[in-house]
């Protein structure tokens, strides 16, 4: 749940509810009501500092509506307690293809990558099958797509997993893995780009290398959309129109934030 991915691995385990529980036409006409995690840095933050907060502010501006939030921690029950409860109308940063919501068109595509020290032994590694990774302590979010590839590549004994489902108001697994690379307890960490890239944008010591060379599944790139309630077709079309008309501005905001953007096929970095 972009926020969660903001992510496919989180979305797949969110609690589903029967389709009959859906209530259409709950959208507010007086506010752009956003469902978000209050502590999912650097994506969404209750103080408004996340890049998805800044994107939401842009959409509110384009719609001519004030932005309001329904805050709830990412993970189990997020959609049920927010979007489906009618307390908000859109989830920012939602991975394409999940059945709990109706997806808008995607407004960016990003990728997992390797965080390593610029002067470290793994600085040149750009694929998880590289033999150079073996024997090095490697951080990864347990259950994430790259963890599967790493295990298949014989790196299970080198992996140091961090939990995905935590209360980010008190825990920061991505930040802890990055800090592990910085202070040397880890030689690298494999992380989702929108969570890692903005933290490393101006870092003189650490780098983020997108995983663009992987040839086996699961895929390392994901198209990111907004999630709206099932059946709210007019609302989806309105958001799709805004995405299409303002894509250049969206890209510029994401680039400025340090989000690694790739083409729609995950084969090359976007300009």
TrEMBL record:
Residues of the Solute-binding protein family 3/N-terminal domain: 31-260
Q: Does the keyword Heme apply?
A: no
Q: Which SUPFAM superfamilies match?
A: Periplasmic binding protein-like II
> Which Gene3D superfamilies does the UniProt record give?
Periplasmic binding protein-like II
Signal peptide range equals: 1-21
**Keyword annotations for this protein?**
Signal
NCBIfam families membership: ABC_peri_MoxJ_2
Q: What is this protein called?
A: Quinoprotein dehydrogenase-associated putative ABC transporter substrate-binding protein
Q: To which species is this protein native?
A: Paracoccus spongiarum
